[in-house]
Every structure is written in C-alpha cells, then in structure tokens.
Design a protein that fits this description.
Layout lengths: L1 H26 L3 E6 L2 E6 H32 L5 H26 L3 H14 L3 H15 L2 H11 L6 H15 L2 H14 L4 H13 L3 H13 L5 H21 L3 H14 L4 H13 L3 H14 L3 H9 L6 H11 L7 H13 L3 H8 L2 H4 L3 H13 L4 H13 L5 E4 L5 E2 L15 E4 L12 H5 L15 H17 L6
Antiparallel strand pairs: 1-2, 3-4, 3-5
Length: about 500
C-alpha cells in the first residue's frame, strides 16, 4: 500500500514537472536555427526540445535494430540460440525489474503487490529458486497460509533452497501449533544447516517440550561447538537436562542408570540444589551416607537451601535432637551469617526447647530481614519464653504481611512453581527457574488482615488464649518429633 502511494505521488510529480518545463519553453524567446547546404531551418525552444528527444529515441531504436541484425546474422551462420538469447535478454531484464519491485513491495509491507510482482517475475524468469522464495514470503505477508505452504514445498525440490523451504514450513507448522511435525522439520533443518542459530533455538525448545532430554543435550553440544552458546551456560544447562534424564529414569525404576546421570549433573553444577539432592538420595540408597553428606554440604556452602537441610536430616532419620544439632553445626560451618543458617539453627534449638539459644541463633534477623518464616520462628521463641498472647499475636500478624520467603520462580515470566522444573510450566522458558523471593506485591495486603486475624482493636480480654499450657507442651513435643524425624521447620 505504501509503495503504491509512493509510485502514484512520483508519477504526479513527474507530470507536473514536465508540464512546468513545457510551459517555460513555450514562453521562452529565441530558438534554434540549422543551416546546411543552403537550407535553413528555424525551431522554437519547445520544438527544439522535442527534436532532441526524438533524436534520442531514434538512436535507441537504431541500436536495438542493429542488435537484432547481428543476432540474425549469427543465426544464419549456425548459432541456433542467437535469436532466442536476444529476445530472452530483454525478457530477463523485465523479469529482474519485476523481482526488484516485488522485493521493494515486500519490504514496505504490501503483500498483495509483492505477490503480483513475484508472479510476473516467475513468468519472465526461469529462476524458481528466486521467484518461489519471494512468492512464499509475499504469501506470508498477505496472510495466505495455504499458498505459502505450497510454495515452501516447491523450494524443497532444489538443494540450494531446501533449507529455506524446510525452515519456512517449520514456521508455518509452529503457527498452527503442530509441534510433532514442527519437531521433525526442525531436526531436518538442523541437519541441513547445524550452524543456524534460530533453528538451534527452535529445535531446543521443541525437544524440551517433548521431554526429549537426550536430544536437548545433543543440541546444546552443537550450540557450544558452533559458538552460539557460552561454555559456562552450556555446562549449567547440560547439568539441568542430565538431572531431568535422571528423574525420568528413576520414575521408570532404572535406579543405577538414574544415579549415573544424577552424579553427572551434580559434577557439572554442584550448586544446583535438585541435582545435589537427587545425587545424595542415590548415595543414601546405596548406603554411602558419607558421600551423600559431602555432596549436600558442598551444595549448602554454595547456596544454602531448606531442601538441602531436609535431605541432610533424612540421612540419619532416628537421630536425637541434641545429636542432630551437633551434626548440623558441622554442616552449616562457614555459613553462619546466612539467613537460612540462622533460621535453621534457631528451629533446631526450638526443638530442644532452648529458647535463649534459639534467640541468639536467630539474632536480629527478624528486624533486618523480616520474612514470614523469620517472624514465625521469633513468635515460637517468644511463646516458648512465656510471652503474653498479645505479643505473640502481633508477631504472627506481622508475619502474615511480611516479605514471603524464597520460592522457585521463573525469571522470564515470574510464575511460581511448587518444585524446581527444567522448563517453566507457564512460559516454557528453559532453565529459568531460580530460588528467590517473590515481589512484595505478592505478600498478603495489610488491608486483608481483619479477614484473617480479626479486628486487632479489641482488647486482650476479647481474645481467648492462643494456647493452653497443655497445648504448649504438646506443641513442643510435636516440634521435637518433627525435627528429629523429618526436616527442620519451614514456612
């Protein structure tokens, strides 16, 4: 549309310019006089201009006629293709002009005009590798999906355009949502041109969607080989999908093979929490508790995580609370200042009913980094120390509206996952799930607190005691049992 408007405006401007020039020539005084052999001819300014134009046209016609005569003489002398080459040369020139016009129309977004020019070029040129490509792109721009698919299929016949045809069909099937056919086309396009970055990315996403972890790792290796993926990113993602292989094999009951991939994933990315947990679980099942402890502690040193603490606690399930506290002291050595370590040790001291030690372990975390979990632990400490119900209730109220603790969140779309996944369940981004805190906007709004805890304006007498003495004893016993037989308390 835009290109057509430009052509119309150009034509109008040209007509106006010619009219203006002719008018000036008619108004001009003087002219041209030609004298030859006693003959004298006089021309006005406009007549002289028309004469020059006529001479130029005559000269051009003479040149064309001479070319035709030369081609005819060559044909008479035995060159059977001389005449056909002469006429084809003019035909080819017009064909390339149509092709050029089609490209310009395509660039301007005029799919209909581009299609018309491409069809004209197809009639004039014997170059389907060029004309079919323009026709396919024009059909896509014009929204004619059927013509686009049919034209891309024609491109498959020529080895020079086979990749373009395959990639074009791949895009069409992706738009149709036909992922099975798209995956086969992506594999074929990748085989034709393994260096093509966009094909690599499409194939990787489709393989991940089909949970073809072996294929994903092969594609990642190709991306590394051809320089389209940094080495550190490849190492991390290779670990992610080795872990995915291990999880699938474990679900199928192939524990030995699953452990091989879990160990590989942990070796490639020691800080990948799910890999460390799965590798440690395999070693625990093989009665190799020492190696499992080493793996979990190494992961904790890189990135403390409550699941690592739960896995470490599960290595000795029938452990006494005091022995567990001592063992966790070695486990967390070197990370004492980390919030996760402070909360973990405070929970263990609460399980021992040593509330003074729990308060020291928690430190000022509830003030400097007041998350829901930190405030809840502080409320448990206050309750254990004998604080009044109103003080405990205020801490719990603060916990409701405080910053939420870290969760598995997609960096790409922000979707929260219950467990770690290799591919986001919402946006299908690869290796985008990280352990981090959600935005403050996702915390409970203070305006909702009356619906949750009631109106805090009422006096203490309006509220029943939070816990009776016997309830507190039962709660402490339950907490000790949980800490001894399961993981430390979490949010």
């Amino acid at each position: 549309m835009l290109w057509s408007l430009v052509k119309i405006l150009s034509f109008v401007a040209m007509v106006m310019l010619i009219s203006y020039g002719a008018g000036r020539l008619m108004e001009a005084r003087g002219g041209v006089m030609i004298q030859y052999a006693g003959l004298e001819l006089s021309f006005g300014a406009l007549q002289a201009a028309l004469l020059v134009l006529g001479l130029l046209v005559t000269f051009w016609l003479v040149l064309k006629l001479l070319g035709l005569v030369v081609a005819l003489l060559r044909f008479i002398n035995g060159d059977e293709t001389a005449l056909s080459r002469y006429f084809d040369r003019n035909r080819e020139r017009r064909g390339f002009e149509a092709l050029s016009d089609g490209l310009m129309a395509l660039a301007s977004g005029d799919g209909r005009d581009a299609m018309a020019k491409a069809k004209k070029a197809d009639r004039l040129l014997n170059r389907p590798d060029l004309t079919n490509l323009i026709m396919a792109q024009a059909a896509v721009a014009n929204g004619d999906r059927q013509t686009a698919k049919a034209t891309y299929k024609k491109l498959l016949k020529d080895p020079k355009t086979r990749f373009v045809g395959t990639y074009g069909l791949l895009q069409q099937h992706l738009q149709d949502g036909d992922t099975e056919v798209a995956l086969k086309l992506a594999e074929h396009a990748f085989a034709l041109k393994p260096r093509h970055g966009e094909t690599q990315d499409v194939l990787l996403k489709l393989q991940a969607g089909q949970e073809d972890w072996r294929g994903v790792r092969t594609t990642l290796t190709a991306k590394l080989k051809h320089g389209t993926l940094p080495k550190d990113v490849h190492k991390r993602r290779d670990a992610v999908f080795a872990l995915s292989q291990s999880r699938d094999l474990r679900a199928e009951g192939k524990l030995e093979e699953a452990q091989t991939y879990a160990v590989e994933a942990n070796r490639l990315a020691p800080g990948l929490v799910p890999a460390a947990l799965l590798s440690a679980e395999g070693h625990r099942e093989q009665k190799n508790v020492k190696q499992a402890s080493r793996i979990l502690r190494a992961a904790w040193q890189l990135a403390p995580h409550p699941d690592l603490a739960a896995g470490f606690a599960a290595l000795v399930p029938d452990e006494a609370p005091a022995a567990r506290l001592k063992r966790f002291g070695q486990f967390t050595k070197g990370t004492e200042s980390h919030p996760e370590t402070k909360m973990l040790m405070a929970e263990l001291y609460v399980a021992l009913a040593d509330f003074d030690a729990a308060r020291r372990a928690l430190g000022d975390l509830a003030k400097t980094d007041h998350t829901m979990r930190a405030l809840t632990i502080l409320a448990a400490i206050e309750r254990g120390d004998g604080a009044d119900d109103q003080s405990v209730r205020q801490l719990l109220t603060q916990a409701i509206s405080a910053q939420r603790d870290p969760q598995w969140i997609c960096d790409n779309c922000g979707h929260v996952h219950h467990d770690w996944e290799p591919v986001c369940l919402n946006c299908e981004a690869i290796d985008s799930i990280t352990w981090k805190r959600p935005p403050m906007s996702e915390a409970v709004s203070p305006d909702m607190l009356p619906l949750i805890v009631g109106h805090m304006a009422r006096s203490d007498e309006d509220f029943p005691p939070l816990l009776e003495p016997e309830d507190l004893s039962q709660a402490d016993a339950s907490a000790a049992k949980i800490a001894a037989n399961d993981a430390p308390l979490k949010e």
